[in-house]
Specification:
alpha/beta, 9 strands, 13 helices, globular, Rossmann fold, nine-stranded mixed β-sheet
Length: 315
Amino acid sequence: MFYIAILLLLVVVGLIVFWTWTGWLAAGALKTVPQIGSIRSVEGGAIHFTDTGPRDRQTLVLIHGLSGNLRNFNYGMIEDLSLDFRVINIDRPGSGYSTRDSDDLARLPAQAAMIWELLAQLGVEQPVLVGHSLGGALALSMALDNRDRVGALALLCPLTAGVSEPPPVFKPLTISSGRVRRAIGHTIAAPIARMTGRRTLSAVFAPEPAPEDFMCRGGGELAFRPEAFVTASADLHAVHACMPEQSARYATDLDVPGGILFGADDNLLSPDLHGKQMEQYGLSCETLPGRGHMIPVTAPRESADFVRRMANLAR
């Protein structure tokens, strides 16, 4: 019994240490990557966004991917596109400085409804939806249920089909229990993310190098908050459940002009499965040789040029 008591004590002490470490990392992240936009309440939570460019021009809505935030578009795309468009760049519900009230709202149609409510508040009509990675799946969900409200789609390395399992770098997020997510998020997730950060970024950006300033300029440090782990895990669980039904609707319900741009050497999502396969549903597909998954960061000029061309298709 003595040894069991000692073991339990060590476990408790260890959890306290990790909980304290997590709090320290989260506080540092908020200082390093502060809120830069406005926050509007919507049903189910609140959305953090920036709104730049001329108000009388075509509106673009930028939607980031899994474990990301609006700063992922902070490597030239915002500045470039804001010269010619009104650009609304959002933290997806639950990500960055946005919030959502429950894990049930991780489902793509639920996130889509929250974003549509924000856009209605801002008086936005027929926007061009620019979705990266998981943000591409979300843009497609928005178009499937509200095709008359979408001007065009400009999807960057999007998730468009169900996959049997996530890329290895995201497997630690595959947790179905909300309680377990929160327990891990508030104890070991952030310290482990801190220790494995370089390896994780290398996997996400491969075959290209990750920018040295991504943790600050690209908002990467916000992944050290407990909420970020909980949100990403819930997102991954929800999208796995949603994608088979969503992809089954493309043939009958996807009626929006636009296209897809992929890094030809994307290490996370297959350009053939998630890009070329979508040509049968009216979306063009292009690839950038030598580029990986994070083209909004590594190829911002090419990505912005692609968005411009897709915006010209808007109805």
